[in-house]
Amino acid sequence: MGNFCVCMGGSAKCASASAPFESKVNPRSSTSNSNSNSKASRRGSSGPEKPQVAEVQAAAAGEEVAEVPASLKSFSMADLRTATKNFGSTSYLGEGGFGCVYKGWIDEATLAPARPGATNAMMVAIKKLKKESFQGHREWLTEVTYLGDLHHDNLVKLVGYCSDSDSNKLLVYEYMPRGSLENHLFRRGSQPPLPWSTRVAVAVDVARGIAFLHSRDVIFRDLKSSNVLLGPDHRAKLSDFGLARAGPTGGKSHVSTRVVGTRGYAAPEYVATGHLSAKSDVYGFGVVLLELMTGRRALDESRGLASELLVDWAMPMLQGERRKVIRVMDTRLGGQYPKRQAQDMAALALRCLQNDPKSRPSMADDVLPSLQLLLQPTTAAKSSSSSSSLTTTSSRSPATTMTTPVQRGHRRHHR
Ligand SMILES: Nc1ncnc2c1ncn2[C@@H]1O[C@H](COP(=O)(O)OP(=O)(O)OP(=O)(O)O)[C@@H](O)[C@H]1O
Ligand SMILES: [Mg+2]
């Protein structure tokens, strides 16, 4: 991001890896339907009951007093200092646009700070808002209201929050031990590359999470590999709801809003017009599919103007009669994937990346079932590879073959 922050209250100093497209959400942005951002209008009749709420005193001058679900634990700053060893460098996990993230320990039952490794203690991830970020306060509020309310296996669980009179704003999440998908795909370190079968399973999990949000008329708006976190078994969950917002109501196709999001992932019509719909998330999902296939970042400025955007680089090789899917595949896979599955995933990514949002598939009715087909093992499928990592094959690809691949960002932007 090029940003540099010194996190408060501790010793960790961190430089962010991503750049803002624009700092994120504006809950009061104009919409094509009135009052569409209220909690009530966010949910259709099938939505969850209005939760029990507690008031959180927004500390920044001029901010409203917000309601947050009472099911969330309200932590004091002292609690979180204790839980993270005073936000010290040994607790540091990473940094994003919101601020730094630390691991901490709390008691499973009482949620009081606990000693690392103590009986009944559980690890949590604690995100600490940069104090200077006014926009971050809005994101914090959005995140608390959405994540406090929406619960699903593929959404990261929010345990609680801290908001005090010193303008401290923090979020306490379940700890996701394998970190972000971004780190797995792009960090060149000692860790082995994600095998193909895991990439397919991650895509299914992400699709499930997004389909769930869309069923609740919520648009995620910041889908990217750094916002996909992996659990111990590589089960994936969506995190970062600071940009989430209510979808259109009353038969409208979109809401009109200020353009926020991450360059490389944001849908073209949204960037051009501010028209936001569930199909904007589908576009972002298409980009994540490309990242999973190619091992290349959505935006990589080091590759030069012509190919800095993954979509621009990959699309010409994926469409047309002479599709060259093999040429875009991640070389770190070492060819260990069924060629037919790669082709199916490429075809799905292409549909998600259609310029016209109406031509993009629906997450629940089309994307998810298509991906789930890739997870189904078929006895007919025979792999030419001896790779143990290859545990799934497409039910649509009985003549599965393995290929030898030839080849194989995150950055917020704004208008
Ligand atoms: N719940 C969590 N469990 C474990 N690690 C986490 C958790 N949440 C965040 N992290 C770690 O902290 C890093 C920073 O996360 P954060 O969401 O703040 O930033 P980001 O997603 O990289 O950027 P952005 O602010 O643009 O979303 C992640 O890459 C991840 O390694
Ligand atoms: Mg994130």
From TrEMBL:
GO terms for molecular function: ATP binding; protein serine/threonine kinase activity. Signal peptide: none annotated. Gene3D superfamilies: Phosphorylase Kinase, domain 1 (3.30.200.20), Transferase(Phosphotransferase) domain 1 (1.10.510.10). Keywords: ATP-binding, Kinase, Nucleotide-binding, Transferase. Residues 13-51, 378-415 are annotated as: Disordered. It comes from the Eukaryota. It comes from Hordeum vulgare subsp. vulgare (Domesticated barley). Residues 87-375 form the Protein kinase domain. It catalyses: L-threonyl-[protein] + ATP = O-phospho-L-threonyl-[protein] + ADP + H(+); L-seryl-[protein] + ATP = O-phospho-L-seryl-[protein] + ADP + H(+). It is an enzyme of class 2 (transferase). Its EC number is 2.7.11.1. Residues 28-51, 378-405 have a biased composition (Low complexity). This is non-specific serine/threonine protein kinase. Pfam families: PK_Tyr_Ser-Thr.
